[in-house]
Task: inverse folding
């Protein structure tokens, strides 16, 4: 059964959302997606919400979602992961035959959170909280291992930041577009040696919503995009037992998605999106996807997470949003010529190696 992205909506991104609540962000993104899909909310069979109580700040955080999405008294299924994990779940629901059209939603209201690093520390073993070190320490270990292998230098890692922040200048939805030098990145405040502050994505507020539908209902959409393959998996959940120089989760998720999409390699895609929550992680994911560092200029034409901001669970959604724009030919000055196929990669973030990959086709 084929599944299509029928409509997309994005409200944001902002360092702080100008007084808009997360409910307003969700409602506006959903309204955009419904208009784009050529539907009304009452035509939906249900929703998938990608969010987590801990990030939202209260229990049963998805209890308000039906109101904002217009799906009161309909199925709402919640995923704690990256937006692409939610995409996989939504597609499975459609393929059961019980649903024909669903909306997928994710958001960030990071400006509400005063202690983001302390929140991250709770993802580790409880004993970690008593050590008094930066929760980004694992990223520092990963980067040290990556550099020790000899394939990359600190300048290569810094160049990821330079490229992503530059790409963001061409994206009106991006928050952190600017021109930096490798010296600016390497000379920034150290966080977890050799990781510097500029190598870590900064947070932003936004909401992303997409409407997904089967072949039975896709005719109402003006410019549908087919999700030809999707895959998700995790590397070893025990930090001490997994390699820190490559993402096993990415490699396995890509294999699953590529097999379903009937492609052999990420290079077969015209538009490429790779998670860059940390600059060195982008290189690790590229390695796992079989992409070389000289292809960095092809990665994340929207600026990625480093350029648009860390949107928590909605990060993969922002990449899906841009991929659809590319495949429709609506990406403006950052448009990739004759883009017909896109690969989007998502990562849940530290301390996990939980990743997902989707392949989209015009």
Result:
């Amino acid at each position: 059964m084929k599944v299509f992205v029928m409509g997309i909506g994005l409200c944001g991104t902002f360092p702080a959302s100008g007084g808009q609540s997360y409910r307003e962000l969700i409602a506006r993104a959903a309204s955009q997606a419904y208009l784009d899909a050529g539907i009304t909310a009452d035509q939906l069979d249900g929703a998938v919400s990608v969010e987590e109580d801990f990030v939202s700040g209260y229990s049963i955080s998805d209890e308000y979602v039906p109101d904002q999405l217009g799906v009161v008294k309909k199925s709402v299924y919640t995923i704690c992961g990256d937006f692409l994990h939610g995409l996989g779940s939504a597609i499975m629901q459609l393929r059961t035959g019980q649903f024909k059209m669903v909306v997928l939603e994710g958001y960030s209201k990071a400006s509400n959170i005063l202690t983001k690093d302390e929140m991250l520390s709770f993802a580790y073993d409880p004993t970690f909280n008593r050590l008094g070190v930066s929760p980004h320490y694992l990223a520092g270990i990963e980067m040290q291992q990556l550099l020790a292998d000899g394939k990359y230098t600190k300048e290569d890692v810094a160049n990821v930041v330079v490229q992503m922040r530059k790409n963001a200048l061409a994206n009106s939805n991006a928050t952190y577009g600017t021109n930096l030098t490798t010296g600016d990145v390497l000379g920034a405040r150290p966080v977890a040696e050799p990781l510097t502050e500029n190598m870590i994505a900064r947070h932003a507020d936004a909401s992303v919503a997409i409407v997904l539908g089967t072949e039975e209902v896709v005719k109402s959409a003006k410019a549908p995009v087919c999700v030809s393959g999707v895959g998700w998996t995790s590397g070893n959940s025990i930090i001490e037992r997994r390699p820190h120089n490559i993402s096993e989760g990415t490699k396995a998720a890509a294999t699953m998605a590529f097999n379903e999409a009937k492609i052999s390699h990420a290079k077969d895609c015209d538009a490429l999106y790779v998670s860059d929550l940390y600059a060195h992680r982008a290189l690790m994911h590229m390695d796992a996807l079989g992409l070389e560092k000289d292809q960095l200029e092809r990665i994340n034409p929207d600026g990625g997470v480093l350029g648009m901001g860390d949107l928590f669970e909605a990060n993969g959604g922002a990449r899906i949003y841009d991929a659809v724009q590319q495949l429709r030919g609506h990406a403006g000055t950052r448009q990739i010529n004759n883009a017909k196929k896109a690969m989007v990669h998502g990562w849940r973030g530290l301390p996990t190696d939980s990743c997902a990959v989707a392949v989209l086709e015009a």
User: Anything to note?
Assistant: The chain is about 35% helix and 20% strand. The CA atoms of residues 23 and 239 lie 36 Å apart.
